[in-house]
């Protein structure tokens, strides 16, 4: 029953056998390609995981340094430096752009940070706090760079995880469902074709037997007719009855058989 459930419903013909073999070859090639794709994605997945671990470890130190730098800036320049900093900012100098990277057919999102324009150093007039504010800005720029890198790695990590799960499901489906079903179908078609071949051979033997017996019956009838004609001819020549002529012919044939033996 399990073999029948795994077998496709097909007509057992030579054409269908060739089609099933072609499908099995395609499924085997597809399984091999998907297996290679899964291995490549797994390698990339592990590399990204290592980078995420390192980025998260460094993020703690960077965020701690940036928070400490902000505290120092507020201590040196006072609590009311927010308005002065906002007045000196015209546009964002650190921006983020997205792109895609193709890994074994899977498009991974990547985020890159870039600087646009130069930052005006107009905070030096803040008594002794201008330099400390610049150091605070540099610390937060470093934190943003780490966060952008971590966001890129985390997004790629999730995308790769979903792609690996999908690829592995396809690999398992081909290996455990599609290929066994095609192989069972091919075995079923071969068995049916062999059975049909045996039936044809048996049918030919029966037909040959019928023809042989019909020929034998025809020869026997022809022989009997020839003997009857010859017996009538002998009866006319010797002036005896047909039965007596038959008896003479039978005796002659028996003597011939004894001589041959």
From TrEMBL:
Which keywords, in A-to-Z order, does the entry hold?
Answer: Ion transport, Transport
> PANTHER family, alphabetically?
V-TYPE ATP SYNTHASE SUBUNIT D (PTHR11671)
List the top taxonomic levels of the source: Eukaryota, Viridiplantae, Streptophyta, Embryophyta, Tracheophyta
Tell me what organism the protein belongs to: Stephania japonica
Sequence similarity: Belongs to the V-ATPase D subunit family.
Pfam families, per the entry: ATP-synt_D
Keyword check for Transport: yes
Which protein are we looking at? Vacuolar ATP synthase subunit D
NCBIfam families attached to this UniProt entry = V_ATPase_subD
One annotated GO molecular function is: proton-transporting ATPase activity, rotational mechanism
Q: Which InterPro entries match?
A: V_ATPase_D (IPR002699)
Top-rank taxon of the source lineage equals Eukaryota
């Amino acid at each position: 029953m399990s073999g029948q459930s795994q077998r496709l419903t097909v007509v057992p013909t030579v054409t269908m056998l060739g089609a099933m073999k072609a499908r099995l070859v395609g499924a085997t090639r597809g399984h091999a390609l998907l297996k290679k794709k899964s291995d490549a994605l797994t390698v990339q997945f592990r590399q990204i995981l290592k980078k995420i671990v390192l980025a998260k470890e460094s993020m703690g130190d960077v965020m701690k340094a940036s928070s400490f730098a902000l505290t120092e800036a507020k201590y040196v320049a006072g609590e009311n430096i927010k308005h002065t900093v906002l007045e000196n900012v015209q546009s964002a100098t650190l921006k983020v752009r997205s792109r895609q990277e193709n890994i074994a057919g899977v498009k991974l999102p990547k985020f890159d940070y870039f600087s646009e324009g130069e930052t005006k150093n107009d905070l030096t007039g803040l008594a002794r706090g201008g330099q400390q504010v610049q150091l605070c800005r540099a610390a937060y720029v470093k934190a943003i760079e780490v966060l952008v890198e971590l966001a890129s790695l985390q997004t790629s990590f999730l995308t790769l995880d979903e792609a690996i799960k999908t690829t592995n499901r396809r690999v398992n489906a081909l290996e455990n469902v599609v290929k066994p079903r095609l192989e069972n179908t091919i075995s079923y078609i071969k068995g049916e074709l062999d059975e049909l071949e045996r039936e044809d051979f048996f049918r030919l033997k029966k037909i040959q037997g019928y023809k042989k017996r019909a020929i034998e019956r025809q020869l026997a009838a022809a022989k009997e007719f020839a003997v009857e004609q010859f017996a009538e001819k002998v009866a006319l020549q010797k002036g005896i009855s047909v039965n007596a002529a038959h008896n003479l012919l039978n005796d002659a044939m028996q003597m011939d058989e004894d001589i041959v033996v």
